[in-house]
Design goal:
Shape: globular
Number of helices: 7
Mean pLDDT: 98
Distance between the termini: 22 Å
Helix content: 25-40%
Oligomer: single chain
Bound molecules: ribulose-5-phosphate
Number of strands: 14
Strand content: 25-35%
Largest sheet: 7 strands, mixed
Radius of gyration: 17 Å
Low-confidence stretches: none
Strand order of the largest sheet: 3-2-1-4-7-13-14
Order of helices and strands: HEHEHEHEEEHEEHEEHEEEE
Number of domains: 2
Structural class: alpha/beta
Amino acid sequence: MDRDELKKRSAEAALAFVEDGMTVGVGTGSTVAFFIDGLARLKGRIEGAVSSSEQSTQRLRAHGIPVFDLNAVGPLQLYVDGADECDPRNRLIKGGGGALTREKIIASASERFVCIIDAAKQVPVLGTFPLPVEVIPMARSAVARAIHAQGGLPVWREGVVTDNGNWILDIHGLRIDDPVALESAYNQIPGVVTVGLFAARPADVVIVDGERRA
Ligand code: 5RP
């Protein structure tokens, strides 16, 4: 079975977490695109969605699903999003699609974070996928030097501007044995907006190839 079919199975399985009257937090990426398409079938039963990117907003609106500002709705019951890597303790690398900041905000504002992936994203230790870090543009070089001094190899994702008007560094060469500590360390560097490690607030539920992981 190809990876898109496995992503779609996970996205479809996540629809079981959607309850009547909910405003659903929606992530970004190709797996989430399948989730949005499935959510469209339930749109008469939900209030709407809070979106983590312009890309997801467009897809939600194309299906006629109302999109609300997070400020207007307060805490959410459910957030559904994909990931680039997932370790056995549900800690994630995210941000391959560049939406990490809004994704982390919505994840932290949600009671339950359901992560939808295909099995290729499961790893014993995070770090093979380059870790995205969103930075304020004027701080790019300074942040890169600070991360390099801590052992990472930053590569500027040149030409990419996030929905927040910022830039992204992808950090190569990491073996992340303590993701909570690294998330905290990078968060201390002036100019860092968001670290693509979701470790302090990991996923609550992970669905792999359509099956909920134990
Ligand atoms: C976007 C993300 C995505 O969840 C991540 O990149 C996975 O994407 P896909 O479902 O396309 O494999 O973090 O910022």
